[in-house]
Every structure is written in C-alpha cells, then in structure tokens.
Amino acid sequence: MADAMMTADAGERAGALSRLFQGGEASTTAGPLTLSEMPVPGQINLRGNPSDAAFAEAVAKVLGCRLPVAANTVEKGGDFSLLWLGPDEWLVLTAPGAEAELSAGLVEALAGQHFAITDVTGNRALFRLSGTPAREVLAKGCSLDLHPSRFATGQCAQTLLARSGIILSQVDDAPSYDILPRRSFAEYTWRWLEDAMAEYR
Amino acid sequence: MLLIECPWCGPRDEIEFAYGGEAHIARPADPSKLSDAEWAEFLFFRSNPKGAHRERWVHAAGCRRWFNVERDTVSYRISRVYTGACEPVGEGQ
Amino acid sequence: MAEFRNSSGGRIDRARPLTFRFNGKRYQGFSGDTLASALLANGVHLVGRSFKYHRPRGIVTAGAEEPNALVQLETGGYFEPNLRATQVELYDGLTASSQNAWPSVDFDIGAINGFFSKLFVAGFYYKTFMHPRSFWMRVYEPIIRRAAAGARAPSEADPDTYDKMHAHCDVLVAGAGPAGLMAALEAAKAGARVIVADEQAEFGGSLLGETSGIDGIPAAQWVEKMRADLAAFPEVRLLPRTTVTGYYDHNYLIMAERKTDHLGRGMGGVRQRLWKVRAKRVVLATGAHERPLVFADNDRPGIMLAGAARAYVNRYGVKPGNTGVVFTNNDSAYEAAIDLAKTGCRIEAIIDVRPQATGAMAQKARAAGLRIICGAAIAGVEGAKRVKAVEIAPLSSDGETVGGPVKRIECDFVAVSGGWTPAVHLLSQSGGKLRFDEAKACFVPNVSVQAETSAGACNGTLFLEGALEEGAKAGRAAVEAVGLMPAQESALPKVETVEAAPIHALWIVPGKKPVGHGKAKHFVDAQNDVTAADIMLASREGYRSVEHLKRYTTTGMGTDQGKTSNVNALAILSRTLSSPIPSVGTTTFRPPYTPVTYGTLAGRDVGELSDVARVTPMHGWHVARGAVFEDVGQWKRPWYYPKDGESLREAVNRECLAVRNGVGILDASTLGKIDIQGPDAAEFLNRVYTNAWSKLGIGRCRYGIMCKEDGMVFDDGVTTRLGENHFLMTTTTGNAAAVLDRLEDYLQTEWPDLKVYLTSVTEHWATASIAGPKARELVGELAPDLDLSNDAFPFMSMKEATVAGLAARIYRISFTGELSYEINVPAYQGMALWEAIFAAGETHGLTPYGTETMHVLRAEKGFIIVGQETDGTVTPFDLGMDWIVSTKKPDFVGKRSFSRPDTARTDRKQLVGLLTEDPEEVLPEGAQITADADGTPPMPMLGHVTSSYWSATLGRSIAMALIADGGNRQDTTVHAPLGVKTLACKVVKPVFFDSEGARLNG
After folding, report:
1. pLDDT for C841-862, tens place per residue?
2. What phi, psi does C372 have (nearest 5°)?
3. What is the CATH number of the domain that holds C393?
4. What one-character DSSP code corresponds to residue C502?
5. A Pfam family name for this chain (chain A) (predicted)?
6. CA separation (Å) from A29 to A25, A180, A194, C268, C408?
7. How many distinct structural domains can be found in chain C?
8. What is the CATH number of the domain that holds A76?
9. Which of B53, C183, C729, C895 is deepest in the core (most CB within 10 A)?
10. Does the structure's ipTM exceed the value 0.85?
C-alpha cells in the first residue's frame, strides 16, 4: 500500500484550481455566463526569427499551419493553436499530452537554426469564459478595447486582467474567451472572474 | 494613464509598461578605457529636459519588447514611438 | 401636501409620496425630489452650520455646486458623509442629518465662535495656534477638529458592492444638457461609438427647469425625444447619474456612476461604478454655475441663487418661500422672477444693480407685473436662521457705496444672481487654458491641450440657441476628427430667444458700513467661511498670487472646491490689488469634480481580491498542514508549520533540528526560473554574472551574482547547464520579473548580436527541496534507479530521473549547508510529487519546514539573501564574496564600477557576523551598531543588523550586520543600543556552522 502511494500517476495532470474544487470540475455559471477551467493543455513556447524563411517554413511544416506574423492573431492547426505573443515569440497550445511529440518534431525540423523550443505546459492555466456579457465582465479588469470591431474571434493579446497578467484569446462569437493566467495567479483570477460575474446572476 | 503605442502590440494603457529612463545612452563598448568621470557620466548623469524627451519603455505585460518613445515632459504628449537597438538621434518634433 | 409644494407642475410624481427623516424629524416628499427640494417643500431652509463661525446656513443651489447643504446619510456601514442635499435623490425611508452642528442645528454651541470672529480671520490657523508649540497636538488640534468637524468618517465596513469598468469610445459627451444632447446625436448619426454621461437622474441639464419650448414642444418633451433617438443607436451608451469626474492624460477620463443610490442603501447588485474611459474625442458640455452677489450677510438661510429658485419651482413644484426679492446684476434672474411670480410666489421687487433696465427681458418682467428697482442694492439683511427682510439702498454711480433713503422690504427668500461661471473644471483638468471674458465677466476656454471641445454654457455660450448650435457643431467636428463622415446637416431646433442686456460686474456690493467693519459679513466662500474682508486682508498682507490666496484663506477648498466662489474671490483680489483679473490668474482645478466614495475607487479590489495571492501547486497541502504563511512579493510561502500550539520559535527550533539531524522538505517552487537557449548563451552569462561560465560542464550547476552597472548586487541564484547552448537560471523569488526584464533589455538593446532566447519557466516547475543527513536515503527510495553516490551525482550537478514515477530534474544544490536534493516536476504534478515524497518520508521522519527555518539554516552558514543582506548599496566585495568576481573576464555588468573611488574604498560597510555577549539575547533586525557602549544620541552609527536569529543548532543567537570597515573589526566588540538596554556583540566571520562544508556530502 505504502509502495503504491509512493508512485504517482504520470498521466494525471492536476488543474490549477484543484485546491478550490477538490476532485470536482472547476466550473461556475452566472445567468448567461459560464466559466470553466479547461484540461491543462500542452504548452510550447516557440522563439525564432519569422523573417527567416527556413524557420517559418519548418514551423509551418510541422504544425500544418502558417506562423502568425500579424500581431495579436491566432492560427489554427489540426489539434492545436498557435498564438502570436511577440515579434519572435509564439505559444503553441496542444491537446493535453501532445506537447512532447510536437516539441521533438519542431526541434528536429529546426535543427541547425537559432530557435528556442521550451515546454511550458505547467506555466499557465486555461479558463474559458462564455456568454453574451463576457465582454463586459472582462472590461471590468481589462483595459483592452474588446469591441468586435477591434478584437474578434481569432485574435489574442497578452495583457492584464485586474492584477494578473493573462493571455486572452477570443475563440468564438458567443463570445467565448480563453483566459490563460500564470498558474500561481489562477486562484486569484478565478475568484476575480467569479466576483465580476456575480451581477449577471 | 498614458496611452502608449507598443510598436508590436498596438496602443495599450501605461500600466502594461515599465519605464527604462533616458534613451540612446549606449553602454560603452569597453568600460575599462573610460576615466572614472566618464564612467560616472554614463552611470549617473541624465539630461532631464523640459520638453521633448526620448525615453525607453518595455511592454512588460505584453510582448516584453523594449522600444523608444519621444514624449513631451510638460504636456506628456507622445510624438513618436520607434524601435531600434540604438537608433541615431534624430530631430524631435 | 407640504406647505410650499405647488399642487401641480414640475417633474415629481405626486402619486408616489416618500417619507424621510431629517435631523430626527419626519417629512414627506415625492418621487423625483432631491433631499433639498423635499426639505424646501416642507419649509426647511436651515440645513447646517458654517465651518468656522457656525452660522446658520440654508440651501443655496440646486446642484453639484452647493456649498452649504452638506448632509450625512444613514447609519452603521451605510453611513455616508459630505453629500450635497441638492444632489441626493429622495427615496423612501431616507435618513439624513446636518453636519457641523452640535448639539443641534437650531442650537449650536459653536456659534459662540461668531462672537470671537476676529480670531478667525484669514490665515487664522497660522496666526492663532502658533504658541506655545507644544499646545498644537494636545490642545489646539483636537479642539479645532471637533469644532470644525466637517464630517465624520464611517466607522463600520461598507456592505455594498462597488465595481469598475473600462470603456472605449469615439466621442465622450460630458453633460446631457442642450449642447451635449445635440453633440451626441450628431456623433451617433455618423455611426460613432458614443458615451453620454450626465450627473443627474434625468438627461436635459438646464432644460429640466426650463419653461419655454423647443421646436414647438415643451423643453422636457424635446429632451425625452432626443434621449429616445440616442438610445436607438446600438453604439451609443447613455449613462445618467454618472459624473465625469476626472480628465487625465491622453483623453483618459474617470466617471463615477451611482447605480442604486436613488433606491436606498443595501439594494444588492452594484451600488456605484467607476468608469475608466479612453475617448478619441471629448465634447465638454458641462454647463455653468451661477454666482452669488457678495453683499452684507448674504449667507442667511432663505437667500439662494436665482437659477436654483427657478429650478425648485419649475422642476420640483416647490416654492422657495411666500414672499421674495430678486437681486441681480444680469438678465437671467428676470426669468426666475417671472416664473416664481407665475407659480404663486409674491415677488416684491427685482433689485438690479444696473442703472437702468430697458432691455427685452426687463420689458417682459414689467409686462408680467413685476416691479424693478434699478441702480440699487441690498445693503443689509435681517434675520439669522431665516431671512426676514432686506434693506434696499441706491448705489453710487461707481458702485462703491450705497446712500440715500433705505427701503425695508419684508420677505422670506431672496433670489440672487451675480452672473454665470462656465463649468470649466474638466477642461482645466485636461490641461486646457482659460481666458477672462470681460463682457461676460467670466473665464471661458481658450486653449485646448487634449482632444476635446467645449460647447454651450461651459464655453461661455449662455443662451439656449447658441448652446444647441455649438453642441451640434462640436459633435460633427468630433466625428470628423476620428475619421467618420458627419451625417447630413439638419436644421437646428427652433427656440424663442430674448436678447439679453449686458451683465454689470459688481464684485462687492457695498453695505451700510465699509467691508470688514461692523457686524455684517460679506461672504465669498460660504463653505469655508471666507469673507471679502478676509481676501482684502490677505492681499494687504502680501498674498498676491491666487494660489497663495487659496491656501492662506482656504477659499475654494472643501467639498465644493469653490464652484460658486472662485471667480468672486479672484475678482475681489484683483480689485484690491488694482490688477486686472487675467493677471491675477485662476487656480487650477483638480479631480474629482465632485467627491467620489472610497468604495467606488476601491471597486471590487477589496477583501481577498485586494491583492494577488500567488500560490504554489502544493499550497493546499500547506494549508491542510496548518502552515502559517509569509508574504514574499505576491507569493504566499509557508513560514513555519506549528504543531500542537507551538510558537514561531518552538516550531522553527524543531524544524531546524530536523533538517540538521534528519531530513526536512521545503516548497521551493517560487524561485524565478529562466530558460536560456542559443549559441551565445554562455557568453551572455559571462556578461551578466560576475563569474565565468564558459567552462561549466553540461549537467553542472554554478552559483552566480548579478550586479547592476554601478557594481551593486542586484540578484543571485544557481544556474545549470542543460546542454551546450542551453542553461536554466534561477533568480530570487521577489526579483524574477525584474531580472527577466533586465536580461531582455541587455539582449535587445545592448547586445542584439548575441543569439540568445529567454523564456520564463518559473511557473512550469514545482520544486521540492529535500535537505538533511537522511536526504540520500529518502531520495534513494523515491528514485531507485538513480545512483546517488557522491561520485555519480556530485554536489552542484543535475540529473534527470524518474522520481515516484514522475519524470523529474534533480539538482544537488544546497541553501542549508546540508546534503540536499531539489526535485523539479512540472507544476501539474507538483502535488502528486509532494504527496509521494511524504508517503515515503514518513518512516524517515520527514519534516516540512518553512521560510523562517530556511533563513536560520542559511544564516548559520553565512549565506546571504538579496534584499536582506543587500539594499542596492552593497557590492560582492562588501559581502566578502571576492571569490565570485572574475578578474580574468575583460568586462561584465558592474565590473568597471568596482574601481570607482567610492566603490573601491576599504572602509565601506562590510558584512560581518555578530555574536551577542549574552548568547540568549537575539538582536532585532535593523538594530543600529555603534562603537561606543553607552553613548547618548546623537552618536556615530557604524551600520545595522541585517539578519538575526536564535540558532537551535548552536544553542545561541547569531546575527549578520553590515558595518563600516567590518573586515578590520574582527574580534572587536561593538554595541547595539536598543533604548532600554545596549547589547555588546563580538564581531566574527559570518559563518557560524560547519565552516569546512563537510555536511554537504551527507
């Protein structure tokens, strides 16, 4: 028995809210709004020079989608999204567990180039906020102009939500947003969102 | 709350940025060749002008890129945002 | 129906009566009333006592500019002071009371101040309460605070919810009066994103009290039509009860919205909301405030502004009294007189300081049967708690004196107009400049600094037709400026315009005695009890700048910020100095326009949301184990784990001994971690650390110190070489973001040629640090496939291995001096790892320890903590760490500074160990160190204690200190004077335990 407990399940990935929702699903609603923590996605940080054709091509080949070079945009491949974070930095979100293979593929394709592939799967939690007033809830703590003419599905941004840095990305026109706080900020961000949603109950 | 145009991410509130002091003060290529007075000049002396000021900002909560801003220290109006490791000093507007 | 309420007219709902209490008495008002209008309806004018003299004061205005009628509302957590009765919307059950009145507004002990009023002249604080100096804190200040109480602060937590919201728009319209509505509609028609904010419950501004029509329909109906038109545009946001309160840089504006105040307190939902607006263009349509005339005893209850009297009767159906006198220097009061007479007030006379009244307005008044007395003034007022009569006397042709026969008119109210002051507050806040318009006798906008336009009364355009036209123009210009096409121009609404006769500025109305003589007072600033005599005295005493005048006399301060008084004060100063008004200047307005509650400013950043609490993946375990937490930056770190009611010291002693004698575990996940990749990674480290990195082997770790260019220690940590071009740097917990910013700065701006990429992985890894002589045994059980011998896995190296079934990186580094393994797994497996370690650790007596024990253990070894042993003025040499500074590298950050004369001094403050003579005494951290045993202050200070603990391992106290010339003071005795006693300490090397480092290998 003791021996069994000494070995953890390597396939098991704890969400960032497992302290608040012990064993349960991290999800809450308020009127038309839903907020949920999504299963921890694979996260790969990618650095490289997008004006170097060899780099862009190699990445496109492995991921099966273009490297987003327009600021604050997202490209979608099969099972993953590629988020623009900066002029030489991207975040690849994969299905949980798919990051190792994808990383290896990228490293192999980029061999000989100057790049950085870093597994950052533990870096951030992923929350999804959905429902008509979602834009307003975010506006309580985010100074970005989220008007549909300025920030639409397929766009992303690194910004602040209240006192937490987040990656924000609009995933559909419901509207639904993916919110990725750093993992240690996850409890704060969740509580803040829950509190901001309360008025729509 | 200034509105600063990050050259990469677009206009964002000042709160997303960190300030880096006066721009275009290059680190000397070989500090050992400098006299104490010259080194002190690099370390401690800044122009602190009233009016157009070229200064450094980093988009700390965004893309983490450093860039330069030309800002009027009286009106706080930003006349220019530009990148470049150490762009030659041009005439301010 | 209350005595002074008309049976019809106004915008109140007589079918919805509301009951409220004021100063303990029950009254009735109606839905649509303000507290002020409901009080006036009940004949209550006396609402407070003045600040210095405790004179009885009444309601003067009908809006935000009110200087007198300050009230406090409700009790307990809902208690709120400093509200203007003129802006408080009445709700059923409202409870209000006067401020500044003790024991009651009718009988106020403080009124005795009036008899000593000579004490309260300009600058009385500075003159009266100077001597003896010791009296200030003990005697004067408490008395002044009680007498001039202003308002009390609430004593209980506010149970209501507040909120904030960011908003963006093409055009923000501040004020929904005639100009604002026109501007908003033009902007909306062009397809712009528009926000219209108005401080009142209803849109319309001055039109809500207007009796004439617009476009052939009553003004109020026109307003409603405009509002409905605007509401139909999807990109238009209408915000009534919302005050644009601050205008900051780059067209950033703050608005305070009162969402449920009009319903009462504790209504649930959000009570007030702070809006933070970034507007491309702003149209300021904030209207104007009427000024009083400065005449003898002009502060008696019953004396109010003419525009306010008109608003009360037209908008609220409330008569300010039965019999009134109108006193004016301009035409606008004539409209008030006409409307008051029409709605049941007896208007005895219009007293006009102008020599003749022949204009269209005067003719209209005469046609309405009103008597006009020209070239005359009110020279005196009878009545204290309510005006009883006024004395009218002819004015000399220069306006300096009154003479001739005095006529006494009995009345119970006086409606006064001294002209209008454009509400230029927001323009002034935006940095815009004003100019004085002699013809209009007021300051008007002159130079715009930000993207805004003023329209209507706030631009000095004080007639309706002009305001409508300017508003439309401003709206069109605004949309054009943001790149939209204005809609086709349409005809302006038609209004009846009566040509106004010019205003006649009379800044001081002479009384029967010269100003400042006799009992009568000419009040300028009613809220601060500043009289014309005070201003004249101040200017005689040499206060020539309006900014100095303001601070010396307090004119223009307080909750109303001088909205009704600033221009009068300025004009009187200018008159006394014989210097034109523009050269005396005007004071700068600062936010907020009207007071904003702390709740609104705090929003939802209260309680557990007041700051971020960053937690590690193992936080839940620490909480369950009863850990006491310490804040490190925003992190919550276990400080110690008390067992069975242990004190901090007892718990830490137990934890320290467990690590030194057995095995302990620390959650070290909070350390900053930066992944460094690229062919120039080693060269980069060479440049940013003081020591050399090129030769570090793959899989090996090295400690580094990072300095700033000035040579002072900035950060430290262990960096590991993961591959030829791949390193992992750790930083201190609190400095992680600052280090990354600094490193990016060097890479991007100084050395862009270096091929290096940095990625923060602080949050990716969870770290369990296992330390103690039994650490190898425990880790061996968890990682059975790993060879843990000193040869296979030496100190300062890293291995990848499977630990408890999880892929992990293990670093053999030590911050305790004990054999130690830091096991890292991805954060999502942190808790699984931690629980598995404890499952295995039970038989080994595994003890969790917190940051306090970590601090003690590292101090026993003399390891520094950046930010504790350093403070930005400490070099590696000062720390005695010469060994970490490379002498071979040609350059690195900070190197050049080490040879600067001041940095190279040998007598700088240097790190030493201190042992108190009495081993039981633990020095307080921060204690000053002196050479003398019992000097009396002042005495030379050598330095201070940076770290100090009880060491259970050594059975005595230990400390570290930075003291001048510390290196040469070894084995001498220094002293720590602590006030009650002075502790003698021996200076030693800052290593107290295992100085050979034998324990590192277990």
Report:
1. 999 999 999 999 999 999 999 9
2. -115, 125
3. 3.50.50.60
4. P
5. SoxG
6. 12, 19, 8, 19, 72
7. 4
8. 3.30.1360.120
9. C183
10. yes
